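B., you asked whether I could sanity-check this one before it goes into the benchmark set. Here's the sequence:
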Amino acid sequence: MSNRNRLRRQKGIIAGVCGGLGEFYGIAPFWFRLLFIILALPGGLPGIGPYLILWLVIPRR
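And here's what the prediction gave me:
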């Protein structure tokens, strides 16, 4: 499997999760950042929880 098809964290603003997701799905990382921010607004856990889990699960580049 080539590196293009693997989900990897990138060097990014915080942990590189949004950049890695953006590269994997071919979408701008901005949309993932916006999604996590919107999910964090109601109380934090719906946006911050999945972000932290992805940070631990997705390997570094």
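One thing to flag: The mean pLDDT is 86. Otherwise nothing jumped out at me.
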